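lol ok so funny story. i was supposed to be doing the assay writeup but got distracted and ended up predicting the structure for this chain instead. priorities right. anyway since i did it might as well share w the group, maybe its usefull for someone
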Amino acid sequence: MFHWTPRRIKGHFVVCFLAFLVQRELEFRMRKKGIHTSTQEIQRAINSLKVMKFSHGEQSYYMKAKSLPLASKILSLMKITQPDKVTPQEELTL
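and the output, tada:
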């Protein structure tokens, strides 16, 4: 990553530091629940979480792809509800 201004360098540092904190918090919660795994396995599991957007007529939908089993445990530990296999766009909430 190339950032040339002090503001962009600081912004990049903040994003990297937040990612590090989230990673460590997740590792802590997993160890507390007796789940021992590596940082690389956690990242692989999170990267396996994917959705695909498709349309049928005027309606747009999102379809959840199959993810690694560890990804479901991570979402549960972080108290994130998984969407249904197929979800209409208007039912998604942030």
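The two ends are 28 Å apart (CA to CA). The mean pLDDT is 91.
back to the writeup now i swear
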